[in-house]
Amino acid sequence: MNYRGPYRVRADKNKPLPQIEHSGDAIVKVTRSCICGSDLHLYHGMVPDTRIGTTFGHEFIGIVEEIGEDVRNLKVGDTVLVPFNIACGKCSFCEQQLFGNCHESNSEATAVGGIFGYSHTAGGFDGGQAEYVRVPYADIGPMVIPDDLDHDNAVLLTDVVPTGYQAAEMGGIKPGDTVVVFGAGPVGIMAAKSAWLFGAGRVIVIDHLEYRLEFVKNFAQCEVYNFRSLEDPVLFLKKTTDWMGADVCIDAVGCEAAGDAMQTITGRKLMLQAGSATALHWAINSVKKGGIVSIVGVYGPTGNLIPIGNVVNKGITIRANQASVKRLLPRLIEHIREGRMDPKQIITHRVPLEEVSDAYHIFSAKLDNCIKPILITPAGANL
Amino acid sequence: MKKILEDYSHIPGWGIDADPLDVPQYPIKRRTENDNKGMIWERPAQQPERVEILHSNERPTVSAVFGTPNPPSGLSGAIRRFAFRYSESMIRHWLLLLVADRVNMIGGIQDDFKKGHVPDIFSELGGKAELKYNKVGLARKVALGAAIALVAVVCIKGRQRG
Which domain of life is it from (chain B) (predicted)? Predict the structure, then answer.
């Protein structure tokens, strides 16, 4: 996959194969790779320092093809899932299991750790929407996929499932809490599903795409509302919570939210702010006093228009981070094994890697009821 | 608002990760003995710098590993180097990088032609998928584009006559 500019990507058979560049590297032959909702921010040209020629993709699994001389935990031939975070395992932040905040994987920005295929602002690494990918710190992040774990579930464990789960976890949900999830994309779907595991008493999902609302209603057994049919989503949420507001609000949308013309024009069209912060705005105003707003939606590095005065006056706690995938994997695999969740149900499209430009357009334009597209490489075609 | 139903048995795993005594602790900083000592950890082996790597001026040097594809080059590269004079806190840092991205895009088209590759813009934009799944939308876009082109031609001709 080769990024050529906003809304333009293509399959490129002439791109050089990745090489071992560090003694802790591995080269992985990719078998499955997803397009993430956050990849669309790159695709739309909204993330600064997204260079032409970049290969996106931070959700992938594959087979270890080659290892650097210092790699001990993997061997050639292992089938691995690779967390989207590139983490050294040694720095102060990795020591605290903040694997999304590693300080030794991104030269270009200190505010974010290294991420595969997520612009030079996230380290300049090529991603896994390719036949082969370089995986730094191969002893730290990658995990050999257990035999009993379906590969479709495995690839979703590299980002979307842990991100949704951590959104619920950061919400500090207590039994009986009302949880509102803004966004019925893959992460919002997994956040709604996870909220029950923490004992939520009521889970409400807000979006404007009917087909996604219908899916999450069945998948996560939650209430769903289309904000297009609500004159004022915040007022509606106040009314439906006895005028108190939700205990926990989760922003699973990020910087390309619809629903507010001013945010859309200034954030998405004119790029005068780091994207459209409509979902976060609603989350802050919908949560009750003293409640928690959990943010996993992706925003740009500049600034956004949000009602920060209400955060102060309502005593809201805001919790946010990139998911710490490695930390969460054991628990999430257990949930899948026990049948508490089956993430692969969110996959709606399987597209050969060579048709990557169509896959991006289908996902971006929400065509054909797309929820989660997965790219199948030649190596993964028969797996 | 608390709302406890009588029975959540229809939801697999309901409450299994709930711990009422566990106020959310993640990702709050966990105290370690190395707090307040700066960057004292044993750094991983340094990746050799074989291409130009720009680094934030909010850190002393490059990280132990980094991506090497697409190093800065040409006019976009010069803009990126200039952007990195400013910290991540400065809006000009990010705006300059966005400008560099757009310059880079034009350079990408030039590079394609230099290599004898004519970019298939329609396919790169996902036109085949649009044709398959959104014929009406595509027709609207084509009609809108044609209308804009027509208005532009009429305006230009009008000026030429004037």
Answer: Bacteria
Superfamily of domain A2-159+324-380: Medium-chain alcohol dehydrogenases, catalytic domain (3.90.180.10)
- Any CB–CB contact under 8 A between A125 and chain B? yes
CB proximity B136 to A under 8 Å: no
Could you tell me which CATH class the domain A162-320 is placed in? Answer: alpha beta
Query: Would you place residue B6 in the very low, low, confident or very high pLDDT band (cuts 50, 70, 90)?
Result: low
Q: Is B114 on the interface with A (CB under 8 A)?
A: no
Å between B3 CA and nearest CA of chain A: 5
Cβ contacts of A50 on chain B, cutoff 8 Å: 101
How high is the pLDDT of residue B3? 56
CATH 3.40.50.720 maps onto chain A at: 162-320
For chain A of 383 residues, list the mean pLDDT of each consecutive stretch of 10: 97 95 98 97 96 98 98 97 97 91 96 97 98 98 97 98 96 94 98 96 97 97 96 96 96 93 90 91 97 95 92 96 94 96 97 97 96 96 82
For A318, the enclosing helix (H) or strand (E) is: strand A317-320
Strands (E), A47-187: 60-67, 79-82, 85-86, 114-115, 132-135, 143-144, 178-182
The interface predicted TM-score (ipTM) is: 0.93
CB A205 within 8 A of CB B61: no
Chain B neighbors of A70, CB-CB under 8 A: 45
Contact between chains at B104 and A51 (C-beta distance less than 8 A): yes
